[in-house]
Write a structure and sequence with these properties.
Blueprint (H helix, E strand, L loop, with lengths): L1 H20 L3 H15 L5 H12 L5 H22 L2 H4 L6 E3 L2 H9 L4 E5 L10 H6 L3 E5 L5 H11 L7 E3 L2 H12 L3 E5 L8 E5 L2 E5 L2 H9 L3 E10 L2 E8 L8 H22 L16 E2 L5
Parallel strand pairs: 1-9, 2-5, 2-8, 3-4, 3-5
Antiparallel strand pairs: 6-7, 7-10, 8-9
């Protein structure tokens, strides 16, 4: 029965995928964005998103939050439609403007490897697009979808963006990622999700359980960490920004992991504040119980 329900769920998604695949990319993005803008605020997650936004940016009034959240739902709708057409997006000309190409060249020429961390903003699926455009030896990791039929579809759509392979989270994957960086390769992952096995760092003034794996890889291999974002500048135009994440280093590995993870999230916070409508406020980033961060000494 479980497999049957999973297959039926896959069939439903596949029908939507096939239907939107028949549309021009911009039309599909416009339609799905409009649908999400109208109907997504009726979902229970809208209240959670409003709570998170009010907590993170208390200077906003209810009307300002409402505008941001409706724009957020529209962007997520657009991402959904665009994700169904990743194979076409990958070959679209003038889709993505890279604001600092010098870093791309640095990644191409370096033998040290690198860790790239991104967050769910703009259309994050395009974060790895420079890998195929500029020949970067990049390996990715993602959270597998529980439905195996849907997971196969997701992997098939995303995998071409990652020349060195796209792996699902797990112990074997962690070893593969370490090995890839030690050989001079680049790894990329979304690092803004809740991770109770990691470390808690300040994020919008509240403690957030965060993924410490990017920091661990960088510290153990001596490679740099780069924060990456994709900003939607028009309905089907994007800009990719990259910046090296600087953080204090000491002789204490655990202290350095905490400092690097905190620095990553400080950069994410700065960027999200610039385009708050392009981040996923609805996911439970801080956990069910939200704890204020201690003030800096």
């Amino acid at each position: 029965m479980k497999k049957l329900l999973q297959f039926l769920g896959y069939c439903a998604v596949w029908l939507i995928y096939a239907a939107f695949g028949l549309l021009p990319i911009k039309t599909a993005s416009d339609v799905m964005g409009w649908l999400w803008r109208i109907f997504a605020p009726l979902n229970i997650r809208h209240a959670r998103a409003n709570t998170h936004l009010a907590m993170a940016m208390p200077q906003l009034n209810p009307q300002e939050r409402n505008v941001i959240l409706r724009d957020m739902w529209e962007n997520l709708g657009r991402v959904t439609a665009e994700s169904f057409q990743l194979d076409r997006l990958r070959h679209r000309q003038n889709l993505l403007k890279i604001s600092n190409p010098a870093i791309i060249e640095r990644l191409r020429s370096s033998s040290k490897g690198a860790v790239l961390v991104a967050y769910h903003g703009g259309n994050w699926e395009l974060t790895a697009l420079p890998a195929t455009q500029f020949g970067l030896n990049m390996m990715g990791v993602y959270q597998a979808v529980q439905n195996p039929y849907l997971n196969a579809l997701v992997h098939r759509l995303r995998a071409p963006f990652w020349p060195a392979g796209l792996l699902t989270k797990g112990h074997a994957t962690a070893r593969a990622l370490f090995a890839h960086v030690r050989k001079g390769g680049i790894i990329g992952m979304l690092a803004d999700v809740r991770e109770h096995k990691g470390v808690s760092v300040p994020f919008f003034g509240h403690m957030a359980p965060s993924n410490s794996f990017p920091a661990m890889v960088a510290l153990k291999t001596g490679c740099p960490i780069y924060a990456v974002r994709v900003v939607r500048t028009a309905p089907l135009q994007f800009q990719l920004d990259m910046v090296e994440v600087e953080f204090p280093k000491s002789s204490d590995f655990d202290v350095d992991v905490l400092a690097a993870t905190a620095a990553i999230h400080a950069q994410f916070e700065t960027w999200i504040k610039e385009y708050p409508a392009q981040w996923m406020w609805a996911h439970r980033r801080w956990g069910r119980e939200i704890t204020p961060a201690a003030p800096h000494p």
